[in-house]
Amino acid sequence: MQSIYRTAGPACTAIYKDERMSNYKRILVTAALPYANGPVHIGHLAGCYIPADIYVRYQRAQKRDIKFIGGSDEHGVPITIRAMKEGITPQQVVDKYHAIIKESFEQMNISFDIYSRTSNPVHHQTASAFFKKLYDDGLFEEKETEQYYDEKAKTFLADRYIIGTCPVCGNPNAYGDQCENCGSSLSPEQLINPRSALSDATPVKRKTKHWYFPLKDYEPWLKQWVLEEHKEWKNNVYGQCKSWLDTGLQSRAMTRDSNWGIKVPLPDAEGKVLYVWFDAPIGYISATKELTDKWADYWCKDDTKLVHFIGKDNIVFHCIIFPAMLRAHGNFVLPDNVPANEFLNIEGEKVSTSRNWAVWVHDYVKDFPGMQDVLRYVLCSNAPETKDNDFTWKDFQERNNSELVAIFGNFVNRVFVLMHKLCNGKVPPLHQDTLDEKDAIILREIENTKTKVESLLEQYKFREALFEIIDLSRKGNKYMQEKEPWIVAKSLETNPAAQKSIDNTLHICLQLTANLAILINPFLPDTAKKMIHMMKVVEKMLEWENAGKINLLKTGYSLREPQLLFRKIEDEEIKAQVEKLKSGLVKPATTTQEPAKADQKTKEQPAVAETKAAIQYDDFAKLDLKVGIIIAAEKVEKADKLLKLQVDMGSEKRTIVSGIALHFKPEAIIGKQVVVVANLAPRKMRGIESNGMILMAEDNNGKLHFVAPDNKINPGAGVS
Ligand SMILES: [Zn+2]
Fold it and tell me: pLDDT value at position 687?
């Protein structure tokens, strides 16, 4: 047997066996396929990638046969629209974001065995064959319906892409599914003067044929399988499934009119592709095929445990639709569990990528280099496992400073410092004859913690498991505090036997530290690596069968000097992050949002400036635009976003209140040339009368820029 020590050491004999695994020979873990039209934010990580990675790392440490599958979802209407707007091809859109997403996962140590993508040929073949099998078995219903079509853009339009006047409140920019002004839920037929969000053309009705999956035929089976046989699923998952099943299932179209996606493999299906929610989950199968020739062992053998990690918006697809598809196909295993998380809000508000209200992973790794484990820690200890939760930068700082630094990191550091100081840098012996009650208690805690953490991880309770580990280090600190080996050391001259007490305390603390490394490894892999480096042991020590043991470090073995595991995060760093978040905030775009309906892929995308309807010259001529110069600027009290400006307009000076305080410091904009809408009716803001409006341009990051002549000219000059 291989030793865990670089030199020599005791053999590991215990072979751990878990009852929950006894029926399974292998585990297949999938994490939701992120949509390739935007980067990854921390809500994604907290929702499914971090829990999935913890679970996988734990199972690997258990030496179980496990594969971790991920990839980008690259089909669907939002990608074609994005491509159209940016003037590039859909393939260019997905190439760009697939690369960004993949890199973010690598940076956060999400340890996929494969991270694939659904535009790969193997996926096209797999999804196509899946559809064809269901078709050949006569499972689909073929239906012709009328749908809105944009003759100019030559495309069918999802409801969200139809804009018109709201019949309830008269808002001219209501969507085909909802008016955001009055909240009425609408259908495109109700809109007055409907127009396409893509081309402004008036949409027409066109007949189109699609293939529907008869979900209702699977309802009795789903009720039995989910509601009776999977009562152990998390409450939020089980509850959502129950509500869908109680409402009753409808047939769903599994095809769409589009040129981007997997072509419907039938002769009379020109211009039709598989519905993105039909093809995406099959992506798990395709990626497994790419990964290993033995893919069928994982997908087709009953002794595979299949686990889907997802966010709550995907529950219906992974617990109802995909299982029904798998069942209809007949060759594949069904998920054993779908431990979906709820949503993570940011600073009290829902994450919105269109408003740029998000903490982006690529930004985090730039701003906090080498501190991936801190984010993993915070997102796990605050994970939305049972309900929506809130991420705040303040809480991030507190958890780092008062838990990772002050408890876990402090314990490990103290143990190493004292061991070097009081035991010559070597693991001291354990003197059985002088063990006291406190020693016995902490030794039992090591064993108990291992048992608790293991059981919690098998039940997908990651927060609680992590809490137990931090709690063990807390107990270690308390034990050390009570034993006071540094005080005992002072009595050595008069009482040499006291060395035994010092030895025991540090021996036990070192074995506890070795245990902490094993236990924390699935959660904070970089930290575990630093710890085994300090202990001079090989990675094999981190195998789970070593957890709970109190003979991991051999007596007399010399250890390295301590290195700090975590650093304190300062108030300024947190302030900077909060400011960054607020200043990046983009006002909601009023048109052409991505579809947000349940039967569309629910994903958001960054804002794009709206394209407004055409106006006549006379409308434009009504505006009185003038060049001005900012001569004074100050913050408006109790209004984060407002600056009170004095603007020289040539013949007069104006007070204008402008919502740019998050973007500019008052002193930095004195002397700037601006363009003012001079005949805008006066308006009171925070008690100050604002006379006019300053024109600003907003870039892709939501940052504002002044619009001004490119040379200095006289204030009061007209703009037309
Ligand atoms: Zn309305």
Answer: 80
